[in-house]
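Q: Hi! First time doing this. I have a protein sequence and I read that you can turn it into a structure. Is that right? Here it is:
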Amino acid sequence: MGVEKIFVKQGVKEGQLEEYLRKRFDRAGYSHAEFQRTPLGTRIIIYAHRPGIVVGRSGRKLKEIAEEIREKFGIENPMLDVREVENPYLDAQIVANRVAKALERGIHFKKVGNYYVQRVMEAGAVGVLIRIAGKLGGEKAKFFKFRSGYIKHSGHYAETLVDKGYATALTKPGVIGVQVKILKEMPSELLIRFKEEEDGDSKNE
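A: Yes, that's right. Below is the predicted 3D structure, encoded as structure tokens:
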């Protein structure tokens, strides 16, 4: 098998495993997982808001899950490590999941979007953008953006500093997609540029 096919196969397997972990630890405030290959096996680092639910009593649940992963995904010697997400409102994936669940409960999308934008900013974010798209109360699909603060949409900083999360809500009218972007902190060089942009805007008013 060629190198490219091996990487594609590994990517598909990791995607399937990510989906499995997300469903398995939904109640734990699951964020994401990282996969690290070592000579001894595959280390799987699970990030969740309530790690105690993932671990279980005396780590018993971790052992059961490691065995499930080995059997279902063919990963030899999976080593699980659980880390806590201290502030769920600064984790884009957790926020996206919560927005999706709120929409599934029938809460109006504008109320949901505005509420989570406010909570993210109160948690100390520099900026946040929540995009909700789908059948939102009408026959045609629409999308709405809820934002506050400063967010980079493209370029180096958008790729390296902006935390991104995606989720879907299954509602009666149809599937609704949720995208969340959070800028947790701003580097000094970007802060200088941001101030220059603000000064330029104020002069033009």
